[in-house]
């Protein structure tokens, strides 16, 4: 939540909401959880707790290149891609410096000319401000959390601190207790999360085609089905791609587009 | 380390050469003594594309025959499997028959199995072994995972590339390579490619590999990039039908 006077309480009842979010995330961590599910829950919480219009989490692959693993919308993902393509931008900076980056107004910054030019040229890009928090691990970053707002403005310090805490939860979630055995596991967990993302994208495509949904709607159905059946997002996605789960049971809609 | 392997992207080389280069690069660049790469097919049968030495070969044979071990587990779960000390009880109870056979027939102490994956498709498994127990260093791990990623990319390229089964296809005058549809390390970073794969898979009622192959064939025929074809599919400007073949 952003406003001009950060000293005033940002939103009544938010404290309770924050508490609930952390309890839910902690619950996820206790169970036999999937990193992708956790990250998806995290970006959703970021949007509601920080009054962001979109949020995304990117992780570095084994080559050190960032890839989006969770996002609340396709638009957020597009912002990530524009930065990756330009080779610069707030989230890349936050990742490289392992430090938070705030961009109150994208239209007035000249720090990343290639990125801002690309963002300008893309009509789908409707975000004016970006806040990127590093996923920190022992002084380095393993990825970044992106918060996107349609309106220009800075997040108040309290919100930034909360965002960083959520980013830290993401890091903890990815590492899990297995990290204690071997630091190589970090790479293993990242690898699994990155590949799960590929399966989720394919499943979104299947649902979108089957029930004439757009990609955001397809993901909504996928997520809702996983949660209501208490299944892992990645497992449901895998079962959709291999035909073990019928798309109709996920979207509640029969094929609505005529075939070829 | 993977540079020698990555340069094979876009080259029309057999799977065995990809596997050989990759396994050799792993043995040279990582603290392991041997490497092997096996393909997984839809059937339980598998085939070892390359093994750097007789011990590595023996490990593959044992896992195929006994149907248990790190490689089998990696193939089933799609997650990397690390057995830093095969004599440790955690591993011997995990794969009792396999661990006993390894101890009896080979000098192998540590085994690391990395699945070569593209989404829900597990293409094969890269097995690395060492004669002394112990984990791979974090840097070695990163390199090993990057090697597995590169191998997956190359083998998937071989399976889905237009005209890969025949001689060189006629190329574009502007292209350095024949059939260049933008396939490379960056392609997996585009969610549209995976989303479109899912859409085409649903349009044709096929598997993911076939759907990707059809999009690449279309990109090739139209002299466009795979990413652009994928975007057209997602935007519903392009549909694939059986008749389009």
Automatic annotation (TrEMBL), chain A:
UniProt cross-references to SMART domains, sorted A to Z: ANTAR (SM01012), GAF (SM00065)
Matching Gene3D superfamilies: 3.30.450.40, Winged helix-like DNA-binding domain superfamily/Winged helix DNA-binding domain
InterPro entries, per database record: ANTAR, CheY-like_superfamily, GAF, GAF-like_dom_sf, GAF_ANTAR, WH-like_DNA-bd_sf
Pfam annotation, one family: GAF_2
Domain of life: Bacteria
Start and end residues of each ANTAR domain: 180-241
The organism's taxonomic lineage, starting at the top: Bacteria, Bacillati, Actinomycetota, Actinomycetes, Pseudonocardiales
Record-given protein name: GAF and ANTAR domain-containing protein
Keyword entries, A-Z: Kinase, Transcription, Transcription regulation, Transferase
